[in-house]
Amino acid sequence: MRRWFAAGLAVAAVIGATAIAASQEVKSLRGDQAITEVDKAPPVHQVREGQRYERAYRQQPPLIPHAIEKYEIDVKVNQCLRCHDWPQNVRENAPKVSETHYVDRQGVRLDKIASTRWFCNQCHVPQADAKPLVENTFKPASPATR
Amino acid sequence: MSEPNNGSRGWIARACAVWRWFWSPSSRYALGVLVVVGGALGVIGWGSFNWAMELTNTETFCVTCHEMSANVYREYKGTIHDSNASGVRATCPDCHVPKEWVHKVARKIQATNELWHHALGSIDTREKFEAKRLQLATNVWRAMKSTDSRECRNCHNFDSMDFTQQRSRARNRHQQAADEGKTCIDCHKGIAHKLPAGAFTAERELDETWGARKP
Fold first, then answer.
1. Contacts of residue A83 in chain B, CB cutoff 8 Å?
2. Is residue A38 part of a domain?
């Protein structure tokens, strides 16, 4: 009886110790912040319209010089293509989607945009005065003209 | 042979009697009473007619049908016409029912067809709705085109738009649209609801047939 009691006490002590250790180590993803504290909202980047940001390097997908938040891109429609797909781009006076976007993975030329290119905003984003998220030393092979 | 003839004659005779009774002067009520009571009943009747029409002209009424609440209303939630900084809203009837009385009644009569299809269950599942969606959307686009986007213009007026407060692209395109005599729906499709698959092909076809219709 006494041995059982001692064993139980030891187990309880171990559990208690780990619990205390764990509670000291737990940190929320928000850092050292109380639950009730409200995060500071991240800055909202205003879309820069009326001017064009040139490419910073050769392969850069061109930036979008207008707001796009209300344009629908889903399984049914792609509202970007309403203006940027040939031949509508002529009437709308909008830049035409590059012909490279009409070639599928097997290299077959298509008359409509390749499914792999459907989601425009995977590569193209509206232009904003956004600073690099992390410091980096990237330099284009040929410098962009300013 | 003679019996049905008699029967129909009897019916006509009865109808004639009612007609004569209706148009003969009353010997029981004073003219004043008839005028006052008739006028009051007229006011009540007219009032309740318009009251009922307004009752069926609210967002709450529209979403009592699950076809509306499960599809188009759910998509409308969160759009700029539903929630925005100032809290001014445009609900279902603001865009889909005309404000002017004659057009409003015409639209209400048209809506009986929608009741019929509600009873038939034409779009009572999401799949059925999606299958019909292009046709339904095109109907609305065509109607909007034919009225020069009248319901949009109840609030959005080209003459009151301050182009200088718009962003450059909106400014250019709005001026261009005004010059070309375009109407709101020509560009602003799918602003409060999701677009149907094949929307832009249908749009082009509609524009082309429209151009042929309008010399």
1. none
2. no
Is the minimum CB–CB distance between B195 and chain A shorter than 8 Å?
yes
Looking at domain B31-124, its CATH architecture is Orthogonal Bundle (1.10)
Kindly provide the ipTM of the predicted complex, given to two decimals.
0.73
Q: Give the CATH number of the domain where residue A90 resides.
A: 1.10.1130.10
- Provide the whole-model pTM: 0.77
Q: Please list every residue in chain B whose beta carbon sits closer than 8 Å to the beta carbon of residue A74.
A: 194
Give me the pLDDT at residue A146, please: 60
What is the rounded average pLDDT for all residues in chain B?
90
Of the candidate ranges A10-14, A16-20, B73-77, the one whose mean pLDDT is the lowest: A16-20
Tell me whether residue A79 is in a domain.
yes
pLDDT at A71: 92
Give the residue from B127, B167, B185 with the most A CB atoms within 10 Å of its CB, the best one to mutate: B167
Cross-chain CB nearest to A77 (options B80, B168, B195): B195
CA dist B114 → A82, B60, B118, B119, B120 (Å): 31, 17, 6, 9, 10
pLDDT confidence bin for A18, thresholds 50/70/90: low
Tell me if A79 and B195 make a contact (CB, 8 A cut-off). Answer: yes
Work out the minimum CA distance from A143 to partner chain B, whole angstroms.
30
pLDDT value of position B7 = 63
| Structural domain containing residue A115 | 63-130
Measured between CA atoms, the residue of chain B closest to residue A80 is B200
Say if the Cβ atoms of A76 and B196 lie within 8 Å: yes
Which tokens is A80 given?
Answer: 């970007």
| Model confidence band, residue A69 (pLDDT cutoffs 50, 70, 90) | confident
A33 inside domain:
no
- Say if the Cβ atoms of A88 and B200 lie within 8 Å: yes
Please report which confidence band the pLDDT of residue A78 belongs to, taking 50, 70 and 90 as the band edges: very high
The confidence score (pLDDT) of residue A105 equals 94
Residue A103 covered by a domain: yes
Interface touch A49/B191, C-beta < 8 Å = no
Q: Convert B94-133 to b/e letters by CB count within 10 Å (16 or more is b).
A: bbbbbeeeeebeebeeeeeeeeeeeeeeebeeeeebeeeb
**Rounded to the nearest 10 degrees, how much is the dihedral formed by the CA atoms of B124, B130, B134, B138?**
40
HSE-CB of B66 using CA atoms within 13 angstroms: 7
